[in-house]
């Protein structure tokens, strides 16, 4: 059944606490990576991507904190997330949102592959017609 309002509120608070905790861990790791960069070491591609994601999350955190700090503004958060879906830092995303994003990316890749396959087939037909 449905969860009581109190349980929903507790679950949301836990979600945000976990999100801030994960962001803190990512920030510490990113700081170590920046330290390594400043001392002339080279980052792997995976480390570079993690550093970029963490920096982007920190920049996204600024508008997100407005919703957390201003009283009763968190009720407008779902509206703003509908308007600006990339506003939320990655550590605050739920599994369902991550799966939805992956599905969208996969569908886009499939459409691109289909388009490229059709284009190549069309080019092959033209080449056969030109040479035949």
UniProtKB/TrEMBL annotation:
Listed GO CC annotations: mitochondrial inner membrane
Domain Letm1 RBD stretches: 43-128
UniProt-recorded Gene Ontology molecular function terms: ribosome binding
Keywords: Membrane, Mitochondrion, Mitochondrion inner membrane, Transmembrane, Transmembrane helix
Membrane topology (UniProt): Single-pass membrane protein
Main subcellular location of this protein, as a coarse class: mitochondrion
GO biological process terms held by the UniProt record: intracellular monoatomic cation homeostasis
Membrane-crossing segments per the record: 58-81
Domain of life, per lineage: Eukaryota
Localization annotation: Mitochondrion inner membrane
Name the UniProt record assigns to this protein: LETM1 protein
Species whose genome carries this gene: Corythaixoides concolor (Grey go-away-bird)
């Amino acid at each position: 059944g449905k969860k009581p309002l109190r349980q929903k509120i507790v679950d949301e608070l836990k979600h945000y606490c976990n999100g801030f905790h994960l962001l803190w861990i990512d920030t510490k790791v990113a700081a170590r990576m920046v330290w390594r960069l400043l001392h002339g070491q080279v980052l792997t591609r995976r480390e570079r991507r993690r550093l970029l994601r963490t920096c982007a999350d920190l920049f996204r955190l600024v508008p997100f904190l407005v919703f957390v700090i201003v009283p009763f503004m968190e009720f407008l958060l779902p509206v703003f997330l509908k308007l600006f879906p990339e506003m939320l830092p990655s550590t605050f995303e739920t599994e369902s949102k991550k799966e939805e994003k992956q599905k969208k990316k996969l569908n886009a890749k499939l459409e691109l592959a289909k388009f490229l396959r059709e284009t190549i087939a069309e080019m092959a037909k033209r080449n056969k017609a030109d040479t035949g």
